[in-house]
Amino acid sequence: MSASPHPLSSPSRNPTNTLKPPDLRSFSKIQIRCDLRGFEGSQKWTIDCVSGSDPIHIILKPPPSSSIPMASAAALDSSLKSAKRVCLFYCAEMKDLAERVAAQSDAIELRNITWRTFEDGFPNLFISNAHGIRGQHVAFLASFSSPGVIFEQLSVIYALPKLFVSSFTLVLPFFPTGTSERMEDEGDVATALTLARILSNIPISRGGPTSLVIFDIHALQERFYFGDNVLPCFDSGIPLLKNRLQRLPDSDSISIAFPDDGAWKRFHNQLQHFPMIVCAKVRDGDQRIVRLKEGDPRGRHVVIVDDLVQSGSTLIECQGPPRRDLRTSGSRTRVLEQFGL
Length: 341
What we know:
Elements: E1 2-6, E2 28-38, E3 41-51, E4 57-61, H1 67-82, E5 86-90, H2 95-102, E6 108-110, E7 113-117, E8 123-127, E9 137-141, H3 147-159, E10 167-172, H4 191-200, E11 210-215, E12 230-235, H5 238-246, E13 254-258, H6 261-267, E14 276-284, E15 287-294, E16 301-304, H7 313-319, E17 327-329, E18 332-334
Parallel strand pairs: 5-6, 5-9, 9-10, 10-11, 11-12, 13-14, 13-16
Antiparallel strand pairs: 1-2, 2-3, 3-4, 7-8, 14-15, 17-18
C-alpha cells in the first residue's frame, strides 16, 4: 500500500461572503492504492481522500469494469447450480396430486416407478433412471390407503435413500393407524406404534435422517412413537381452511362444529376466531348418536371439523336433518348449512 500526498495551500475564509463556493485548489488530496486479495485472485482498488473539507470526502474507485461482470456471472452461475431441485416420486393413486404439485414449481421434477406384480401377487418394482437421482433431493408421495398397498410402497421408500441421494423426504398425507395409538384394555394392539416403528427404520440417506411429513395426525403425542432415524414433521390443513372461511362474504355468520371432545381438543386453538359448537357421542343401544353439547347453531352457517374421517358416518350424524345445501368437492365434504336440531 502506498500514499502520495499532494499538499496545497490552506483554504481562504471570507467572513463577509459565507455562500462563496469552496476553492477546490485549496484542498489537499491523498491517493491510496491497495490490493484486495481473495480466493479468486487480487483486485486493485484506488481510494481518493480529499482533506480540508468538512466532512472529508472519500472516493472509492473500483478496478476496471471488465472484471466485475465476470465475477457477477460466476456468482450467479454458482447460485443457480446450488438451487435446490426435487425429484418427486409417487405411488399410483397419487399420480394426479403429484402432477398438480409439480405444476406449482419448476424446481420439482416428476420421476417414474414401474408398479408391477409377479404371478403370485407380490410386487415387482422398478425405479426408472436410478443413476440419475444420485446427489439429488428426492421425495416420495405415499398413500397408505389400505394394508394391501403398504408393503410395495415401503419397498420403494426403503430403496430410494440408498441410491446416494442428497436428502430424502417422505410425504404421507394420511397416517392410517392414527386412531389406534393407545391401549384401553389388556390385549389391545397399538398399530400406530407398529407403523411408526416401521417408518423409523427407513435407511439414512447421504443427507441424514428421512424427513417424514404427515398432515393432521390424530394425536400430536404420536411424534414420540418415531425413532431417531426419522424426523417427523406434523403439518396441518387447518390454516388453509381458516383462510378460506375468512374470505367468504358471510364469514361473520360461520360457526365451527366439532363432533366430539377429541376433535375439539385437537383443533380448537387454531379456529378460535369463530364461535364453536361441541357435540358428544352417546350410545343408544347398539347405535352411537351425536348430540349437541355446547354452543348454539341456530341462524349460523356451520362447518364441521373432525380430527379423523374414515367412513364419514360421524359427520353425517353431526349434520342432522339437512335444512340447507350440502356441497361436496372431491373426497372432502363441506357442510355450510344451518345445524339441524
